[in-house]
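Revision sheet: structure tokens.
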Amino acid sequence: MKHTTPMCMIGDGSTNLGPDPPVEPITVTLKEYLYPEFFVFILDIIDEKLQPRLVPTEESPYWSSFLRFDDDFLDDLETWTSLYDPANIVISHNAPKDALFKAPKKVLIDNGQTVCFFKRCYGSIQITQELKTYKKIHEAGLDSRVNVCRLYGIVMDDCDFILRLLLTYIDCGGRPLSARVHPEEPDDPTPAIGERWMGQLETALSALHENIIVWGDVKAANVLIDENEDAWLVDFGGGYTEGWVDKEVAGTVMGDFTGMTRLRTLLFPAK
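Predicted:
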């Protein structure tokens, strides 16, 4: 059984495996979340009652990642982005009790000056494709000109395992475009807002194509609307979603145009 404290008190028949989390603000780093201290207990039967007993152990059974890059790819990454130690990244949380137990999405880097989205890496092929695209975006200077997600850095451990990506944090309350369109209510969003979003997406996509960059997985779920009602284009991991981009044109400029046409139909079904 995993726990964050070694306290084990046995007396009146009740067992307390740890104190309640503090109410005051606390600082929790990604290192503390990704590599929590482990305490192993076994259950003994004492006087016909189950009682936990702490077992000394030094090796943690938990691994945060098994993903690594070869030396050449890693050397190239260091020429255009930053590598971060999880000990220097602070989790942004609303409640102290959530800091170690809920998967973090919002983190702070650069001594708390920059807010980032903390994205998990699921496979070497996907993450390599995504990083190559972010490099192109960076080299073209698009991350400061149009509403496309940018890469701030990569979180790595002491053994050079890739833990997570640090991306643009888009404050949208967790609601993508797919959750902002209500077909049963023609004026939600209003035509003016819909045209605003399409204009921002078309501007961003044109800038990508001008720099030989393909969006790829075009769909409403990969468009985020922030708190200022601006549309952001996200997710460059490759692949495609049936119903949005046809398989035969997936990963091409034509595929992007197909997906954009369907986005416009979603926003303006009567046109």
